[in-house]
C-alpha cells in the first residue's frame, strides 16, 4: 500500500541507486544569483589585494625602465642569471679587435704577371706606364734599358711571390722596395727609373673583405661564454639614480619589485579570469561523491578563497610566501567535504598566486606549487582532527610540507637558501595555524558551516538541547545515542564523515521533546496514548516531530547541516499502521495525512540515518521479549533497507550496491551483538505475521517501518 502511495519513479528494489545526484546538487548549490555573487566577492577580494599592493608598496617605490631609479634596490632572493647586457658588451669589444680581413686580389695578380712578362720581353707599351716615364725609358740606350726592365721584372716577381706565399704576410713598403733596389748597386739614375717603374707597375694585391670581417667578428664574439652573475639577498641590484635598463627592470620584477605603472594587466586578469571560477568549483563539486553539504553557499567558498589571497599578501610582506594557501587548506578541509576542499585549494591557490604575486614568474611558480602541495597534503594530513591541539599540530605539519616544497623549489631554481629564512617560515606556519583555529568559529557562525571541532562540541552531552532530551525524553535520548553509535560505525566503514553522522543522529528526533509521551520509547511500558486517539490525530502528532524538531533546531541555532538530518530522516514515508487503522474504519482516508512531509534524504549522511533509524526501530520492536525475539535480525535488516529503496526514499542519494551491502553487513553485526538473537528458522517461519501491537510500536517510535510481506 505504501508502495503505491509513494510518489515517484522507482524501478526495482535498487532502482533509486542509479539516480544521478550531480545535476541536482549543482543547481541547488549554485543558483545563478549566488554564482554571480560569489564571482563578485572574489573579484572584490582580488582588486582589493591588487590595489593594496599598489597603494602600500608599488606606488611609492615603483620603477620605470629607461628612467633614473627612485631608490636603491636590494636583492630579496638569491638568484643566478645570465647578464645579457654585459655579455653583449663583451662580445662586441672582442669583435672590435678584428681590424679587417685581407684577401688576395686574383685579377690584380694576373695583371702583374702579364706586366712581368712584358718587362722581360722589353715591351714597354703594355706596362701602362705614365707617358713621361715611358718616353724616358724609350730614350734610354738598349743595354741599360733591358737591364732596368729585367731588374724591374725580377723585383716585381719577388713582390708577387711574397704575396702568394701563404705562410708569410707581405712586407712590402716603399722603404723595403728602395732597399731592394739599392742592393742591386745600379747607377743612381737607373735605380730611380727602376723605382718609378715598380711604383707604377706594382699595385696592391690584397683588399679588405667587409663581409668576411663581419662574420669573423661575429664568430669570435659568439665563442665567448655568456657572463653569469650570482646575487645574494642584500646585494645592491640598482643604485639610486642609476638608469634602469631593460635587463635591470626584468631583474627587479623577478625579485618581486613592481613597476611604477599601475598594474592594469593584473586588474584585467582579475576581471577576465575570475568570472570563470564557478565553472571550476561547480564542475568539481558535481563530481564529488562525498559532497554532504548540497547547499554550501558559493558565497562561503569565495569568501575563504578571497580571504586566503589577503593572507597570502600579508605573508608576502613578511617574506613567507605561500602561507595563504595554508589558511585556505585549513578552512576548506575543516568545513567542506574533502574532494570539494581539494579542488577549492587547488583552484584558489593557483589563481591566488597570479593575483598576489603580480606577474613575477618565479614567485608565481613557487606560490602556485606550494598551494598545490598544500592541497594534496591537506587531503591526508587534515583527515582526523579530534581536538584543538591535534588540529593545530596537523595544520603546522601541513605548513611544514608546504615550506619544504618551497625550499625544494628554491633549490631547483638554483636559489640557494640560508637557514635564516627558516625562522620566519616557522613563525608564519605557527601564526596561520593559530589563525585558522581562531577563524573557524567565526566562519561557522557567519556561514553556517561545520568543523570537526564544532561537531564534537555539538555531540557532547553538555549541549543544552541534548541535556533537555536526556531529562525530558530519556527513551528518545537513548535511542539517539544508539543510532549515533550504529551510524558512526557504518560511516567509518564507508569513509564518510563519522563525526557529522554522530551529531546528526543525536539531534534527529529532537522534535519529540514537545510531546515525549507520544512516542513509545518514552512510555516505559506504561499507557500508550494512541490507544485512545483517532488514527489521523496520532499520525498528526507523530509526523509533527519533524517540524517541531526544526523549530527547536532554529531556536537553539543548530547548524543547517544538522537541520537536514531532522528534516530528511523520515523522507516521505507513510505511517502504514495508522493509515490501515484509519482505512479499517471505512471512511475515505486522504493518504497525505499519514505521510511525512519530507524531503527525501538528499545526502549520503541523511540517507544513512534514515536506514539506521528505521532498522533500529524495527529490530527494537520485533525483538522486545516474547517468542518474536527469536526472529532473525538479518532478515529484518534486509527487509527494512530493501523496502526503503523500493519506496524510492533513497532516489536522491548516490549509494552504490556495494555501499548498501556494507551498511547491511555492519548493521547485522552491531545489532546481533545488542540483541543476542539466535537464528531459529522454524520459529521464523511460524512468526510470519507481526502482531499489531509491534507494528504500532514501530510506527509510534519511528513511523517508518516497512510492512512485512
Ligand atoms: Fe524520527
Ligand atoms: Fe529516530
What does this structure look like?
The chain is mostly helical. It folds into 3 domains: 20-60 and 260-449, no CATH class; 106-204, no CATH class; 455-701, Hypothetical protein af1432 (Orthogonal Bundle). 63% of the residues lie in helices and 3% in strands. The strands form 3 sheets. A two-stranded antiparallel sheet has the order 1-6. It has a two-stranded antiparallel ribbon with strand order 2-5. A two-stranded antiparallel ribbon has the order 3-4. The longest helix has 30 residues, at 32-61. The relative contact order is 0.09. Bound molecules: fe (ii) ion (FE2) (2 copies). One fe (ii) ion (FE2) binds next to helix 22.
The assigned CATH architecture of the largest domain is Orthogonal Bundle
Task: Write down the Rg.
Answer: 47 Å
For the residues shown, what is the average pLDDT?
Answer: 79
Distance between the termini: 11 Å
> Which strand order spans the largest sheet, edge to edge or round the barrel?
1-6
User: Percent range for helical residues?
Assistant: 55-70%
Beta-sheet strand percentage? under 5%
Tell me, what's the shape?
A: rod-shaped
CATH fold label of the largest domain:
Hypothetical protein af1432
The CATH C-level class name of the largest domain: Mainly Alpha
Number of discrete helical segments: 31
Give the uncertain stretches in residue-range form: 1-30, 287-295, 626-630, 677-689, 703-709
Tell me the structural class. mainly alpha
Q: What ligand species are in this complex?
A: fe (ii) ion
DSSP E strands, number:
6
What is the makeup of the main sheet?
2 strands, antiparallel
Q: What is the domain total for the residues? A: 3
